[in-house]
């Protein structure tokens, strides 16, 4: 047969050569008889050897019947086919490259062949083909990629090993730029990374590592946007190696691509945030996720607040080549995070890998920050009770960062975020509550939250009637000074915005509906708010709200809590000094506002008078105590007040006991408290204190007493104490009626139980 073919070649008789190949193919290689098929395969190989360099002219006719025998049920026949194809390729060398796809397809099937001899033969053929591809500069990568993308999803271990080996070979060839087509195969590579075989996982890890090195070397030519969603999905994989590798890739993408990744922020956060709460068993993933989170946060800049999404000129750059690249990610991010949480099994690779052309990194690309998707993801993770503490803290940090960088856009979402932020105050973690309070304080103090009319958000509960109001003026200049905080301003010139009063109302509602929160965290929350916001505004507004509180029992409890904070917290030192002197109209206004609400609790009202050195009025109040219902709780509060008088806060009061002549009502008020107390430790404590007062006979008041030289008494002389006393009596009558009503309802309930 070889001699015959050589003669035809010498005669340039192509028709006879084709006729010989056709007979070998149709009558032997494709015969029904197995021995005939073996003979045909040997004949085709011999024919190819005889043709030599001219075999390239007949490769299609030579290869097709051999490849058909790759599917033969007889393993010996498959081996002969593998051997025949090896000889054909060895002779043709680079001429077989136009037929590479069919050869690769056949080899990928033989790689998973159960027969070891066939598999061994296919490996020899595979090595030969790799050598040819490596030597040649005519490899058709564009035509090969669709086949590679299809075969890469094979679940067979040997087929996967075969695929990875070819990717490594193609990646090592300088003339072949496989990086341009990485989006086509990246998802498949990550799936192979989860293979049960350690060897295959290691090979895949090496391949991904080589790609990442190439990306770092040439970031300007990388299609980051086309691979972003693929990474997001694999960052949520159950397999630790896949998740860690994908997270490392995400870290590099964010750092290399920068703001190009912003349109995919919602998906990235969906993947990254849960990882922040991992324990030490997944410490590596947690650390990389934290870097991703921090890097992504830095991409948000104040300029994002100025870009109006409604203006096409701002969202679409001048370059027509970039229009598609920006419009597609923006359109995708609206429901992106719901899609990306579905898992990689639902990943539509062709949909995600639409061609997106991004200019090189040296050009400025206008990227619009889509806050809707980001806020939706953050809201979801904050609402999920199963989410870990570190994730919740990260979510709150993100929201705080967005309110700092993009306050105008973020205030569009405030109404939807407000309820969940208030619920977060009940969190078990102090760190979460602190971050939540920082965020709420920023919302309440940011000038961007100020409405044009100068009133709060449209909420019926925000109406503030009454003689004492916290005025929140709307000033145009506030909108330009986003860094201004209300830390040193009085209620006359607050920087608090429209949400401040709404926050105070809802916070008190929260305390009212969740008494355990008030008992365990109430003081902590209010003290932190006094550090973050203006303490005077907080007490002024809460007193104003409690003045109209219908639940009198809660009002009394809340007033007691606020009074304890006012008297004992180091954070309120400045406010106590302001109330102690009552030198300014603002301080007197604050005192009157506090007093009206403090009337819900008689003992706290007296303590407020002691704090503000209104001793005569304190004495007048104690005189009214005889008309009140004296309960165990009432006496307990008097006991606590006596203990407070012995604290450093009331040092000035105790020193004033030395000046009996100018402070007779202080001594009378203290004796009044003494007369209210039963024979208890508090009684003994106060009694001993009063025994130290010098010259008791000077306690009596005379009409010709000289006016006090203390300026504060003169300054506070315009306060109508008679009206305040009448208000106290009115509030106490309401409390008495309410107690009688509660007692009546309890008695009726007891009767029903008996019946």
From TrEMBL:
Pfam families, per database record: Vac14_Fab1_bd, Vac14_Fig4_bd
Region (Disordered) location: 308-331, 447-467
Coiled coil stretches, renumbered: none
SUPFAM superfamilies: ARM repeat
Record field: transmembrane: none
Membrane found in the keyword field: yes
UniProt keyword Endoplasmic reticulum present: yes
Principal subcellular localisation of the protein: membrane
Domain called Vacuolar protein 14 C-terminal Fig4-binding: residue spans: 515-693
InterPro entries reported for this sequence: ARM-like, ARM-type_fold, Vac14, VAC14_Fig4p-bd
GO biological process terms held by the UniProt record: phosphatidylinositol biosynthetic process
Subcellular location per the Swiss-Prot or TrEMBL entry: Endosome membrane; Microsome membrane
GO annotation, cellular component aspect: endosome membrane; PAS complex
Known partners and oligomeric status: Forms pentamers. Component of the PI(3,5)P2 regulatory complex/PAS complex, at least composed of PIKFYVE, FIG4 and VAC14. VAC14 nucleates the assembly of the complex and serves as a scaffold by pentamerizing into a star-shaped structure, which can bind a single copy each of PIKFYVE and FIG4 and coordinates their activities. Interacts with NOS1.
Family: Belongs to the VAC14 family.
Function comment: Scaffold protein component of the PI(3,5)P2 regulatory complex which regulates both the synthesis and turnover of phosphatidylinositol 3,5-bisphosphate (PtdIns(3,5)P2). Pentamerizes into a star-shaped structure and nucleates the assembly of the complex. The pentamer binds a single copy each of PIKFYVE and FIG4 and coordinates both PIKfyve kinase activity and FIG4 phosphatase activity, being required to maintain normal levels of phosphatidylinositol 3-phosphate (PtdIns(3)P) and phosphatidylinositol 5-phosphate (PtdIns(5)P).
Protein name: Protein VAC14 homolog
Organism in which the protein naturally occurs: Pomatostomus ruficeps (Chestnut-crowned babbler)
């Amino acid at each position: 047969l070889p001699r015959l073919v050589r003669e035809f070649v010498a005669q340039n008789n192509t028709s006879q050569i084709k006729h010989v190949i056709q007979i070998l193919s149709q009558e032997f290689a494709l015969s029904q008889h197995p021995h005939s098929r073996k003979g045909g395969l040997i004949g085709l190989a011999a024919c190819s050897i005889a043709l030599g360099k001219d075999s390239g002219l007949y490769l299609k006719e030579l290869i097709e019947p051999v490849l058909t025998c790759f599917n033969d049920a007889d393993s010996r026949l498959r081996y002969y086919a593998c051997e025949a194809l090896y000889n054909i390729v060895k002779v043709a060398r680079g001429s077989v490259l136009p037929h590479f796809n069919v050869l690769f397809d056949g080899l990928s099937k033989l790689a998973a062949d159960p027969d070891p001899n066939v598999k061994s033969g296919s490996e020899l053929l595979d090595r030969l083909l790799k050598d040819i591809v490596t030597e040649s500069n005519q490899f058709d990568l564009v035509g090969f990629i669709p086949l590679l993308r299809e075969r890469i999803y094979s679940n067979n271990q040997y087929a996967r090993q075969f695929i990875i080996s070819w990717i490594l070979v193609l990646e090592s060839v300088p003339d072949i730029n496989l990086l341009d087509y990485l989006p086509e195969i990246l998802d498949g590579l990550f799936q192979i990374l989860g293979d049960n075989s350690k060897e295959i996982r290691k090979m895949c890890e090496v391949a991904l590592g080589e790609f990442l090195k190439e990306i770092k070397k040439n970031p300007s030519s990388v299609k980051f946007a086309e691979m972003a969603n693929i990474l997001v999905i694999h960052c949520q994989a159950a397999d630790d190696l896949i998740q860690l590798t994908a997270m490392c890739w995400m870290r590099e993408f964010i750092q290399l691509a920068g703001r190009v990744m912003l349109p995919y922020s919602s998906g990235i956060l969906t993947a990254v945030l849960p990882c922040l709460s991992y324990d030490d068993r997944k410490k590596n993933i947690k650390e990389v996720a934290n870097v991703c989170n921090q890097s992504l946060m830095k991409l948000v800049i104040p300029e994002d607040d100025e870009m109006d999404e409604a203006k096409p000129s701002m969202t679409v750059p001048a370059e027509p080549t970039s229009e598609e690249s920006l419009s597609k990610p923006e359109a995708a991010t609206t429901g992106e995070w719901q899609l990306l949480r579905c898992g990689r099994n639902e990943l539509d690779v062709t949909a995600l890998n639409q061609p997106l052309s991004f200019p090189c990194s040296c050009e400025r690309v206008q990227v619009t920050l889509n806050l809707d998707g980001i806020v939706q993801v953050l809201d979801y993770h904050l609402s999920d009770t199963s989410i870990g503490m570190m994730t919740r803290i990260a979510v709150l940090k993100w929201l705080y960062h967005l309110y700092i960088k993009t306050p105008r856009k973020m205030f569009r979402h405030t109404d939807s975020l407000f309820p969940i932020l208030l619920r977060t105050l009940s969190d078990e973690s102090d760190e979460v509550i602190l971050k939540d309070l920082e965020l709420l304080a920023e919302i309440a103090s940011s000038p961007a939250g100020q409405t044009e009319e100068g009133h709060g958000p449209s909420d019926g509960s925000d109406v503030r009637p009454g003689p004492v109001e916290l005025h929140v003026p709307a000033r145009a200049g506030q909108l330009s000074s986003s860094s201004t905080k209300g830390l040193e301003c009085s209620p006359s010139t607050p920087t608090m915005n429209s949400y401040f009063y709404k926050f105070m109302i809802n916070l008190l509602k929260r305390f009212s509906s969740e008494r355990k929160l008030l008992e365990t965290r109430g003081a902590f929350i209010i003290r932190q708010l006094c550090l973050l916001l203006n303490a005077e505004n907080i007490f002024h507004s809460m007193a104003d709200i409690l003045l109209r509180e219908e639940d009198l029992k809660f009002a009394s409890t809340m007033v007691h809590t606020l009074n304890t904070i006012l008297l004992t917290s180091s954070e309120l030192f400045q406010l106590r000094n302001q109330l102690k002197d009552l030198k300014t109209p603002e301080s007197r206004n604050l005192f009157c506002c506090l007093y009206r609400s403090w009337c819900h609790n008689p003992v706290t009202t007296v303590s407020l008078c002691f704090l503000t050195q209104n001793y005569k009025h304190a004495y007048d109040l104690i005189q009214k105590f005889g008309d009140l219902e004296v309960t165990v709780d009432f006496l307990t509060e008097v006991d606590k007040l006596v203990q407070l008088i012995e604290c450093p806060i009331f040092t000035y009061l105790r020193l004033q006991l030395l000046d009996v002549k100018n402070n007779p009502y202080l001594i009378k008020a203290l004796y009044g408290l003494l007369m209210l107390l039963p024979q208890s430790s508090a009684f003994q404590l106060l009694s001993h204190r009063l025994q130290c007062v010098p010259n008791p006979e000077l306690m009596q008041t005379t009409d010709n007493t000289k006016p006090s030289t203390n300026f504060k008494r003169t300054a506070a002389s315009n306060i109508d104490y008679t009206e305040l006393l009448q208000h106290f009596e009115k509030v106490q009558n309401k409390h008495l009626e309410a107690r009688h009503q509660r007692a009546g309802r309890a008695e009726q309930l007891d009767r029903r139980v008996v019946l």
